Amino acid sequence: MVFNPKTTHHALSLIEDMAPVITSELYADIINKNGWRTRFAPSPTGFLHIGHAYAAYVVWQIAGENPNKFLLRIDDLDYTRCSDKYVNQLKSDLSWLDISWNNQETYQSQRLRRYSQALQTLLEADLIYPCYLSRMEISDFLSPPSIAQISQPCTRGALSSKEIHKRQQRGIKPALRLDMSKAIQHVGEVSWTRLDGIIIRAEPAKFGDIILGRRDITACYHLSVVLDDADSNIEVVTRGEDLRSSTDIHCLLQKLLGLPSPIYFHHPVILGEDGKKLSKRHKSPSLHNLQDTHLTLKNILRKELVINF
Fold it and tell me: Are residues 142 and 100 in the same domain?
């Protein structure tokens, strides 16, 4: 689905055009009247746009339009870009869209201890290891064709103990990488389940030794969202299709940490005329600005938006 960001009115007509694309009677029985416990988890690094409105309404539908099943989580680990003004505005935007929740939103920035505990558990099991390499050094690791196919190389043992000590003395903090080979050996084959009941075999090995703990903050995206969803008893994780591949990593982490595995639904994403996903960085029209025009986007969404699986 292509979105032309040139005009606000085109943005509204797009939502109407999406109706046949996101309509399916086949799964009508899957969404029960009480809804599934799910969550909307925006990052407050900018104002929400049309793409966020679509994503939020998909979550709202899966929740059965039940405020007690629709959880709002603020993914605010990026402290350099997150702002309270964006948090306040996104709450206003959701209210404008007639989406409500139990007013007990959670903040990732308040859960750093939980993330640290999980990292410590993995460290004690020798499933993660510290990496002191710079980005340039890691890039050199990816030079050989045999390694370049892996997004994150294994850097365990890349530096001598002496060199590691030098970097520690200079105050260099390590990233914490998952030993993918050991992790897979530890849990065996992993899979995840779609909302329609189809089981998908996961292939986490292709990602290599992903980073779970960053130098600047306690945990990265993959670890934090897995813990958040488990601790919030999320039944259905709803994300954009562009994040489908991350599910392979998440079901592996769930098994490593002994966490429950939710069901997953990946919805289509709205693209700009350049073929790229709408984003805050591309200055896509914000819901904040749409409110100022007094256009009834919420009514168009409520009328036209039906979930497609």
Answer: no
